[in-house]
Write a structure and sequence with these properties.
322 residues; alpha/beta; Rossmann fold; 12 helices; globular
């Protein structure tokens, strides 16, 4: 394929790999999702294509970026597409996808991380940044049966700790005889740079860094060695000394949660609707503004005993509700 000239060797290797199960442990920001979008367009647009392609990204923003890359490649490849926008797939779980359709009727669905969106589907499945998903086990359990009738399963991710399901799959494949039969791809930053990544980035940024200078700069910008090894060198962080694992933290994430002021929290606990101005009950400020040091940056002497009692009672009611 002449259009493979756009890609570096490790990207071409991933694109040309048609294994039913393939998995990649990778460095951050090496252009794999971009290359994978090209592969999705190639697979879905063929006249003989039997299946749709489903991509599960970490969040809605990443899902939208992926479908934009697909539209970009469709234009370059002169493929006629119908942009269907965002479609609600599962109203009960608020699961939606960005969708494009090709002339052959096949579609690419770019979904956020809700595993339920894949239930009942059939086709090719791609799990992007798998280790960052909130519930990797549930996602894998629902995604794998989608491929039963001849689809393929691709997993792409940077590591997030040694306790992740993603790392378990990698270790089983590399150290335990590969019982599932994965084709494993490993692309560290060093490998990507050896194959021309620094020059590609220089073209986009206008820098003139050598490969060595590029590597040194990225390493120097890391907080510590653990970040460098995990984010760029395909070496998962050891969580044995951490009280909370990455998997536990990911499972608690919710991008719909917003930070409340105490006034808003008090209104929520009291069961009163918040005023349109976003302030407290009746729009009043329940406590004085920050005026000095002390608990939470507030001076305790500014409060009347009645106000502190009210605050304690509100907190007690919140704990009972939780």
């Amino acid at each position: 394929m002449q259009d493979l000239k756009y890609f570096l060797p490790y990207q071409r290797e991933w694109i040309k790999d048609m294994s039913p199960l393939k998995i990649m442990q990778k460095s951050r920001q090496i252009g794999i999702s971009y290359a994978d979008a090209y592969h999705s367009v190639r697979v879905a647009s063929r006249k003989t294509s039997r299946f749709d392609v489903y991509i599960s990204s970490r969040d809605r923003f990443q899902a939208k970026l992926y479908i934009e890359d697909c539209k970009h490649w469709a234009e370059i490849l002169h493929e006629i597409i119908l942009d269907l926008g965002e479609i609600l797939l599962d109203p009960d779980h608020n699961a939606s996808a960005f969708v494009i359709q090709f002339a052959n009727g096949k579609r690419i669905y770019s979904l956020s991380s809700n595993p339920n969106a894949l239930a009942g589907k059939r086709g090719h499945v791609k799990l992007d940044e798998f280790a960052l998903h909130q519930d990797q086990r549930l996602l894998y359990r629902i995604a794998k049966p989608v491929t039963t009738w001849g689809g393929t399963l691709s997993i792409i991710s940077t590591h997030r700790g040694i306790g992740s399901v993603f790392n378990q799959l990698i270790r089983d494949a590399l150290e335990n005889g590969n019982p599932m039969g994965w084709k494993v791809h490993t692309v560290s930053l060093n490998k990507a740079v050896d194959q021309g990544l620094a020059e590609k980035i220089n073209e986009k940024t206008g820098r003139h860094e050598s490969r060595a200078d590029f590597m040194r700069r990225l390493q120097s910008e890391c907080i510590d060695e653990e970040q460098w090894l995990q984010e760029y060198c395909c070496t998962p962080a050891d969580e044995s000394s951490a009280f909370f694992s990455y998997e536990m933290l990911n499972a608690c994430e919710d991008r719909n949660i917003k930070l409340m002021s105490f006034a808003q929290l008090r209104a929520y606990v009291a069961g009163c609707p918040l005023p349109s101005d976003g302030r407290g009950i009746k729009g009043e400020e329940p406590f004085p503004q920050k005026t000095g040091h002390g608990s939470l940056g507030l001076r305790q002497e500014n409060y009347e005993p009645r106000e502190w009692l009210q605050r304690e009672q509100t907190e007690e009611r919140l704990y009972r509700r939780v």
